[in-house]
Design goal:
The complex is a heterodimer of chains A (1018) and B (455).
Chain A: H1 3-9, H2 13-20, H3 30-40, H4 46-64, E1 90-97, E2 102-110, E3 113-119, H5 132-141, E4 151-152, E5 155-156, H6 159-176, E6 179-184, H7 190-202, E7 206-210, H8 217-227, E8 232-235, E9 242-246, H9 257-265, E10 283-288, H10 293-297, E11 300-303, H11 309-324, H12 333-336, H13 346-352, E12 357-361, H14 366-378, E13 386-392, H15 399-411, E14 414-420, H16 424-427, H17 431-438, E15 443-446, E16 460-461, E17 472-477, E18 480-484, H18 497-505, H19 521-534, H20 544-554, E19 556-557, H21 574-581, E20 592-597, H22 611-614, E21 623-624, E22 629-631, H23 633-639, E23 645-649, E24 653-659, E25 667-671, E26 695-699, E27 702-706, E28 708-712, E29 714-720, E30 724-725, E31 740-742, H24 743-748, H25 755-762, E32 778-783, H26 792-800, H27 807-812, E33 821-826, E34 835-840, H28 849-853, E35 859-861, E36 867-869, H29 879-883, E37 890-891, E38 927-928, H30 934-946, H31 959-963, E39 969-973, H32 980-986, E40 990-992, E41 1003-1006, E42 1008-1010
Chain B: H1 4-7, H2 17-29, H3 34-60, H4 75-86, H5 88-99, H6 109-129, H7 157-190, H8 194-203, H9 211-244, H10 256-282, H11 291-321, H12 325-336, H13 341-353, H14 361-364, H15 367-394, H16 409-432, H17 438-448, H18 450-454
Helix pairs in contact in B: 2-17, 3-16, 4-6, 4-10, 4-15, 5-6, 5-9, 5-10, 6-7, 6-10, 6-16, 7-8, 7-9, 9-10, 10-11, 10-15, 11-12, 11-13, 13-15
Classes of the chains: A alpha/beta (1018), B mainly alpha (455).
Chain lengths: 1018, 455
């Protein structure tokens, strides 16, 4: 290469590097370059050499002085797609259902990329709420671990080959009369069910079996036995004045947490004199063994061992039965002695609140659920707080059938397996049996999106689309329908499972109508189904096209609710009931009991490869990136265990110990969903697989998966493990950051718990003139009585603001980047602590301590009261971080994007597609923080301006406000006297965090009021 | 008039003018001894370690340090203030004593000023390298620019830090240099090496020792001294503002400016003592740096130590008297007791208790003991900065944020690196610059030594 050549050609540093033949790293070494050039061209003159050195020097100095961003070319559209305007995002209504959680959603797309998921307020089921998993699901679309083409024996192949071979094998199996089983997660899509039906017509030896990773089979079967309905009922927590839960984490993971949180939160604020009237605060009693999110919110929480659940329920039942004039179930004394828990006056209160009470249990033991059903029917819950007429379809798996299936597979009865959204090789307790049995099939097909534990065992993988690439419909509850639509073209050579099934059924053309190019067969199939089944139900639209468009636009179609007040007759005879139920009294077990639970972020483990969820601290323990053995304070003391001490559990695996306040003394708990081996680079070998501890037990109706048990052993291995904990100090040290009061006090004095506020107001004097905001002044109010701590807001914020994932080691160093954190405090005593949650984001202080200390003025107060950060100006002295009393500022300690050390979504082109283009990705060495989603404020302001109108109250929703299923946060303009946030600021419960420092925050909190009404005696 | 009968001899051993010149120029004229090379190589190793740490910091980021979201400052600022404190000695020593016409300063001021310049240079590294984006450091300099123009934030103490430190460094270096001009001329005149003659000739600005020259020299020294004296107060006052203007418990204190200035002088004098004892023993300068000198510094130290003790007591009293639960917690639960109590008690012991031994003449006259105590003072002042920064930040207002902090190898490397720079500078000073101000000692010789007084 002659020097003249590169002199001509290089235009930018990057090009220069390419021309000069050095690698395109930005950190280039000046002397290296000149050496290379001189070596390659030996006849180089002195002048040329000096020139080259000069270039290198300039290049190096430019690199150092910050001219380091690669030039990205933006190519304008030649023909602009109708729905895409660069810079303007489009929302599509869709549906999230992963076989476990349901949510009606809006998908925000920018330049054709889905980047954010929001709740759909039009849905009667999820009512605009979301949870962490729903919020994070958009990232799984851009998971590099997804399978990118159909695979045969793990080798890449074409759809035609796969289709031809599978069809011929299916036909062969059918001809021979061999069984084919479609093993699927719970299906709530009516169209998918029809696809299965059509498939069954073509291949009549096929059987569809539902299998849930975390089963609710006990409830479904109990309902079948007691009411003749093999379903899950719909619960109405908002109608219950008294909620008694036995280990059901209904705010976190149990059945429909988004919906339940909304219902529950609506009954957690006390009647306010200034605010609008509400139905009054409900009372919540929780019996459970480990401290769950729901238990953390309970007014009364009683730690019990799993084995005590039956006896306590039976005691409650017996007392209620006596009151109802029925014969109690006879119990032998020796068995009752097992329980140390006294249900006390709870039965009396349940009786007093007949028709306004609700008892739920998270157990998967059919006998316990029968007992719960009986109690609920005694206290008149059916028709009041439980709706069995409009059942919920989230869980359909029956444990016995799965157990049977494995036996049949082992015997060789089932020759074909089609696996849809299931991963029993990971999450079935006898996974090894399943794996060996699966090998006996002649045809095994998986629709898995990723090469998971089960998919890696099958003959054919026909990768399913991500749900954001798919058409679908859903009937989460009887009479509620929703639609799912693709929001992006397929990223890889994948095909929707339903489409594959239709193809194999031979229904891609005729039954589904003419499939034109770009329209999938399944889309036409759904449309057809809706036209046939749903269109006739309504009268508003005169053509199907208009009905369909409306449904697609709204995402939901909910015909007026049918009032099905069918009388609920209890089918079990008293004798049968007594016989069944007395078996809940187990003999006293030796040693420790255990309970297994679903974690808020990781859930069943299906989304484990999502780095956002891995980095979401558990709302209660504040541990991320691991599961652990939760032991009680007393146990830890007795066995001399410290935080992080590794123990070997049942000789199965080793886990570190976490001392969990509120944990029952004789029970240890482990989260499910961890310990994946084929989940992808993020989740592989994170934590241990606790599904191995699920026990299969024989019940009246067959095998049942029981998520608790006895006889667990664990012995310290002498090693200690450091947790990635985001909060290491757990009490408030007597400070009043979370101000809380008792309902009885509140009735007398609405300032209860908030007396400090009166003092602060008295001393609110300033040397300076109070600042007047012309125009807007943004404020946020957080109602701590409503907030359950579920952390959906944390993920929403992460997604909206391109918050980087930093990984376990950095979290250990206390460098988590979340702009919004949820603080969790325990009250002082570790045995039965009260728990308080407090979301903390930037307070947007009017007198911000961070602002005046920045030497370069990189952080300033806007004229709308926002505390703004100019990232480009920040030199990273971190003085602002120190001087922020709330410590909400975050520093980019290292380069978190394009860095192989942080191999998460911002290290690959695919993962970066999730980034919000309205928010800059921060470079190393700058401080960042919450901005009240200033990009959303700006967007709404512009919309209002173009429409020539004033902004409406509640029109702007920051990401956290939008995501909150509890409606705990209100955002708005403090300059408007009638805005919701202004009203909240006038509430007696309102206070500001560290108000005495006179930072004058724009984030207000409303005190947490707990219902302390004593358990009534009548 | 200086009376040796009352105040003792300042230059002992009956040395003559030529003795002084010979003694003080000896290290420059003779080849460096083996220990000098050994010390130099250790220092250079330390600099290499520091260089590695600096490379890690700049190429990877501040993430290579042990800091976290709550504890955003650590060893970087601890060491910065520690060095700045040490850097107070020279100027405080030589200028205050110059203005007060304390003649005993003459044997010590040169080394003290050299130490100041070296220490301030070391200190200056930290604010620069502690930035997340040090290549953007020029943003903190106020000058009309094409970015708006964007100005700095004049409210920020950090900005005034930049101004104060750069001014202080310039003033101290100038003062030091001006004081050396006659001595450079002496070296120039004495040396046989042509190279040295040239270099020292340039450095001495063609000093000929004329009466006019001396007049100007004296006047300039006094003027520079007068100008620099307020800087001694201002530099550490401003550094203390970094903390005092914040809202953090344990930082937000009105006592900080005087407390910091006194603390700085304390640590500076501690370091002067350490250094002078080394010089005096190695180069056998017992005639010049007499037991009386050591005694005098020790007396000053015991006085400052009392001030420090009262400052600590005041802080602790105010923490409980103010009624602020956060202040109370910081002082009583995170300093006096708690995880970092070693820092606090180390500070009390080294700064307020151990120097009280200087009340005893026997201790003051025992050079070995004085040397050890001076090291304790240096250590104690490091503990003080550690206590202020770590205990206040790690557990402040919201317990949910409470964290802990321990430095990484990179942070230790940076500290060791600056120690290396400091010792290298000092070693170079030993070898190339007259360690004692020849002209000034000669200037006082007649009046302050017994032999000459008799004459």
């Amino acid at each position: 290469m002659s020097t003249n050549e590169y002199k001509k050609h290089w235009g930018s540093i990057e090009e220069f590097e390419v021309v000069a033949g050095v690698n395109t790293q930005t950190e280039i070494n000046a002397s290296d370059n000149s050496r290379k050039i001189t070596k390659e061209n030996e006849s180089i003159s002195r002048r040329d050499f000096l020139k080259a050195s000069g270039f290198s020097l300039v290049a190096a100095s430019l690199t150092l002085s910050g001219c380091k961003n690669a030039i990205n070319k933006a190519i304008p559209y030649l023909i602009k797609p109708e729905s895409i305007t660069p810079g303007v995002s489009t929302f599509y209504a869709s549906t999230f259902f992963d076989g476990h959680d349901y949510c009606s959603i809006l998908v925000k797309t920018t330049e054709g990329r889905p980047i954010k998921i929001e709740g759909n307020t039009l849905s009667r089921v999820s009512t605009g709420g979301t949870n962490a998993k729903v919020q994070a699901s958009v990232l799984s679309l851009y998971d590099d671990f997804r399978i990118k083409s159909p695979l045969k024996a793990k080798q890449k192949t074409t759809w035609d080959t796969v289709d031809a071979e599978i069809i011929s094998k299916l036909e062969e199996l059918t001809k021979k009369g061999n069984k084919i089983v479609i093993l699927t997660s719970s299906i709530i899509s009516p169209s998918t069910k029809n696809v299965f039906k059509d498939f069954l017509k073509k291949y009549p030896t096929t059987e569809v079996i539902s299998y849930d990773a975390i089963s609710s089979s006990g409830m479904i079967e109990a309902n079948k036995m007691t009411f003749g309905k093999e379903v899950l009922p719909t619960y109405k927590f908002n109608r219950a004045d008294l909620i008694v839960s036995f280990g059901a984490d209904f705010l976190g993971t149990w059945i429909a947490p988004i919906e339940f949180t909304k219902q529950y939160a609506s009954r957690r604020t006390p009647r306010s004199k200034t605010g609008k009237a509400n139905a009054g605060i409900s009372k919540h009693v929780q019996f459970e063994s480990t401290l769950s999110l729901t238990g953390s919110n309970a007014d009364y929480r009683i730690p019990i061992n799993p084995s005590e659940e039956g006896p306590v329920l039976l005691e409650i039942y017996n007392k209620l039965a006596t009151r109802a004039g029925k014969k109690p179930v006879a119990v032998s004394d020796s068995k009752v002695a097992n329980s140390q828990i006294d249900a006390g006056t709870l039965p009396d209160e349940l009786w007093a609140k007949k028709g306004r009470a609700l008892v739920v249990s998270g157990s998967n033991d059919v006998h316990i659920q029968i007992l719960v059903n009986k109690i609920n029917s005694l206290i008149g819950s059916y028709g009041a707080t439980i709706d069995l007429g409009n059942p919920t379809y989230y869980r359909q798996g029956i444990d016995g059938k799965m157990a049977e299936l494995i036996e049949r597979l082992e015997k060789g009865e089932v020759k074909g397996m089609i696996l849809y959204h299931v991963n029993p090789a990971y999450d079935y307790p006898q996974a090894d049996r399943f794996i060996n049995a699966l090998a006996k099939t002649t045809l095994s097909v998986s629709f898995s999106e990723t090469m998971d534990e089960t998919a890696s065992l099958v003959n054919y993988i026909c990768p399913d689309n991500h749900f954001l690439e798919s058409w679908n419909d859903a009937e989460p509850r009887k009479g509620s329908f929703s639609l799912g639509q693709p929001t992006i073209g397929k990223l890889f050579d994948t095909r929707q499972a339903q489409e594959s099934l239709l193809k194999w059924t031979g229904l891609t053309g005729s039954q589904g109508g003419e499939a034109t190019e770009g329209e999938s067969a399944y889309y036409l199939y759904i449309k057809k189904y809706w036209e046939k089944a749903l269109y006739p139900l309504q009268s508003g639209h005169h053509s199907f096209a208009s009905f369909w468009t409306a449904a697609l636009q709204n995402g939901v179609y909910e015909p007026p609710a049918a009032h099905s007040k069918s009388p609920h007759t209890f089918l079990l005879s008293d004798h049968e009931f007594s016989k069944t139920v007395s078996s809940v009294l187990s003999e006293k077990t030796e040693g420790f009991e255990y309970s297994l639970y679903e974690s808020i972020g990781i859930g069943t483990g299906r989304h484990a490869n999502n780095p956002w969820l891995q980095e979401l601290p558990d709302p209660v323990s504040k541990v991320c990136w691991d599961n652990y053995l939760a032991v009680s304070y007393g146990t830890a003391k007795k066995l001399n265990l410290k935080l992080g001490d590794n123990v070997k559990i049942n000789d199965l695996f080793e886990l570190p110990v976490l001392i969990q306040p509120g944990q029952s003394d004789h029970t240890v708990s482990i989260a499910l969903g961890y310990g994946r081996t084929h989940a992808g680079k993020v989740a592989d070998h994170v934590g241990k697989n606790a599904y191995k501890l699920v026990s299969l037990q024989k019940r009246k109706n067959g095998i049942q998966r029981i998520y608790s048990g006895g006889g667990i052993t664990f012995k310290p291995t002498g090693r200690n493990y450091i947790f990635a904990l985001t909060q290491t100090h757990h009490t408030m040290e007597g400070r009043n950051h979370v101000r809380r009061g008792r309902l009885s006090e509140y009735a007398k004095n609405p300032y209860t718990g908030n007396e400090q506020r009166i003092e602060d107001l008295k001393h609110k004097v300033s040397l300076y003139k109070a600042r007047v905001f012309e125009g807007h002044h943004w404020g946020l109010a957080v109602d701590l009585s409503r907030c359950t701590g579920c952390s959906a807001c944390v993920i929403a914020c992460t997604a909206e603001n391109n918050v980087p994932v930093v990984g376990r080691d950095e979290v250990r160093q206390k460098r988590i980047m979340h702009w919004l954190r949820v603080d969790r405090y325990y009250s002082e005593q570790p045995v039965r602590p009260e728990v308080y949650f407090q979301p903390v984001m930037c307070m947007q202080c009017n007198h911000a301590p961070c602002e005046n200390v920045c030497p370069v003025g990189a952080t300033q107060n806007s004229k709308e009261g926002l505390n703004e950060m100019a990232y480009n100006r920040c030199v990273g002295t971190r003085y602002c971080m120190n001087n922020c009393p709330y410590h909400v500022r975050r520093f980019n300690w290292l380069a978190y994007s394009n860095n192989n050390k942080f191999d998460y979504n911002t290290n690959s082109e695919l993962g970066k597609m999730v980034l919000n283009p309205d928010v800059v990705v921060r470079s190393r060495g700058v401080v960042e923080k919450c901005t009240f989603c200033v990009q959303r404020i700006q967007e709404s302001k512009l919309v209002a301006k173009t429409e020539n109108r004033e902004l409406l109250d509640g029109e702007i929703k920051t990401a956290c406000v939008q995501a909150c299923p509890a409606g705990a946060m209100v955002f708005g303009d403090l300059n408007k006297k009638d805005s919701a946030v202004s009203k909240a600021f006038l509430d007696e419960r309102n206070y500001f965090l560290l108000e005495e420092l006179h930072t004058v925050p724009a984030v207000g909190y409303l005190t947490k009021i707990k219902n302390d009404e004593p358990l009534a005696k009548s | 008039m200086y009376d040796t009968r009352i105040r003792g001899e300042l230059v002992e051993g009956g040395v003559t003018y030529s003795d002084i010149t010979r003694d003080i120029l000896a290290p420059i004229e003779q080849p460096a001894p083996a220990w000098w090379y050994a010390a130099m190589s250790v220092s250079l190793c330390a600099i290499a370690f520091g260089g590695w740490a600096g490379y890690m910091t700049i190429s990877r980021g501040i993430g290579t340090w042990g800091l976290n979201n709550t504890q955003a400052w650590g060893w970087d600022i601890i060491n910065f203030i520690w060095w700045i404190g040490i850097g107070h000695a020279g100027t405080a020593f030589s200028i205050f004593l110059l203005i007060l016409r304390q003649k005993w300063r003459t044997s010590i001021n040169r080394a003290a000023e050299a130490m100041t310049v070296a220490a301030v240079m070391c200190a200056g590294i930290f604010p620069l390298i502690h930035m997340g984006r040090p290549w953007m450091a020029f943003y903190v300099i106020p000058y009309p620019n094409t970015r708006g123009p964007l100005w700095v934030n004049f409210n920020s103490p950090l900005f005034w830090d930049v101004i104060a430190i750069s001014t202080y460094l310039t003033a101290s270096a100038t003062f030091w240099y001006v004081g050396m001009i006659p001595d450079f001329a002496t070296v120039r005149d004495k040396t046989n090496s042509k190279v040295k003659k040239l270099i020292y000739g340039i450095l001495s600005f063609g000093w000929v020792g004329s009466a006019k020259g001396w007049l100007r020299f004296e006047a300039l020294s006094m003027i520079l001294g007068g100008l620099t004296a307020p800087l001694v107060i201002s530099v550490h006052s401003i550094v203390s503002m970094d903390f005092a203007t914040s809202v953090i418990p344990g930082w937000h204190t009105t006592i900080f400016p005087p407390y910091f200035v006194v603390g700085a002088i304390f640590s500076g004098f501690g370091m002067v003592l350490t250094l002078m004892i080394i010089i005096r023993n190695i180069y056998n300068y017992h005639h010049y740096v007499t037991d009386g000198h050591i005694d005098a510094i020790a007396r000053i130290l015991v006085f400052i130590s009392l001030i420090m003790g009262s400052a600590y007591a005041t802080e602790i009293f105010i923490a409980s008297y103010s009624g602020s639960e956060y202040e109370y917690f910081t002082f009583y639960n995170n300093r006096i007791t708690g995880d970092h109590m070693i820092g606090f008690w180390g500070m009390i012991l080294c700064n307020a208790v151990i120097p009280q031994l200087f009340w005893f003449k026997a201790v003051r006259r025992n050079t070995a003991l004085v040397f050890i105590i001076s090291l304790f003072v240096n250590l104690g002042m490091w503990f003080e900065r550690f206590t202020i920064i770590v205990t206040s930040l790690s557990k402040d207002y919201m317990p949910s944020n409470w964290t802990d902090y321990s430095p990484t190898l990179v942070e230790i490397g940076l500290y060791v690196g600056t120690l290396g720079i400091f010792t290298t500078c000092i070693l170079l000073f030993f070898k190339n610059i007259p360690m004692i101000a020849i002209s000034e000692v000669k200037g006082i010789l007649k009046h302050t030594s017994i032999k000459n007084a008799k004459n």
